[in-house]
Design goal:
This protein has a 4-stranded antiparallel β-sheet, covered by helices on one side. The chain has 7 helices and 7 strands, in the order αβαααααββββββα. With about 200 residues, the protein is an alpha+beta fold.
């Protein structure tokens, strides 16, 4: 029913007012021009790039080398534990089963780190559900995130900083989680608006 017909119906009492259709952002009192609305499937390459550029101490090559060295020493120590107690592994397994399981677990984890944590990148891709579309809406109020059945409304205070590369924006929370915004998903003509929001609300690294 168009506006003219609706007005006639209201005046004659023959019809009830019909509210105009609302979008998700209208329900929050925001106009479409106030919201940068992005829908995309994150690619493995974009996730790998975001993981690589994060300002995390353990990502630095020097610290990775130190971590591997420490785990290497830990692996050697785990192997030698029974012998330092005057026994061997068969005896230790028979009489100290709980302790043996702990040291074997520690040995496996140390070896895994020394070997460079194989398969971790592939596991990260699975856990991040790259086959599920992401919908991220950015406004002056905060960031609305929909990823499959997961829906979150985050304020700007939930984030600690953002990083930028030629192809992505990375938004880091105060914890271990981060969100990746591919620049390819920014609607045409809205890139400057998104950049202005990020600079106004978050510090950049």
């Amino acid at each position: 029913m168009d506006q003219f017909a609706q007005d006639l119906a209201n005046q004659s009492g023959l019809g009830a007012a019909v509210a105009p259709a609302k979008t998700a952002n209208d329900s929050n009192g925001l106009e479409p021009r106030e919201v940068v609305d992005m829908r995309f499937f994150l690619t493995p390459q974009e996730l790998d790039e975001a993981t690589a550029v994060r300002a995390v101490t353990s990502n630095q090559p020097k610290n990775k080398a130190i971590m591997r060295a420490i785990c290497g020493i830990g692996a050697v120590y785990a192997v030698l534990v029974p012998y330092m107690k005057g026994a061997n592994w068969p005896f230790w397994w028979e009489h100290h089963r709980g302790s043996s399981i702990f040291w074997i677990y520690l040995l496996v984890m140390d070896i895994y780190v020394v070997c460079g944590q194989p398969g971790m990148k592939q596991l990260g891709r699975v856990l991040n559900r790259l086959n599920v579309e992401r919908c991220i809406r950015v406004s002056h109020r905060g960031i609305e995130i929909t990823h499959g059945r997961m829906h979150q409304q985050k304020s700007w205070s939930d984030f600690s900083f953002y990083q930028e590369t030629p192809t992505i924006y990375l938004l880091q929370t105060h914890g271990a989680l981060f969100w990746t915004l591919p620049k390819r998903a920014i609607p045409a003509g809205r890139g400057d608006q998104l950049e202005a929001l990020l600079k106004a609300k978050l510090r950049q690294r």
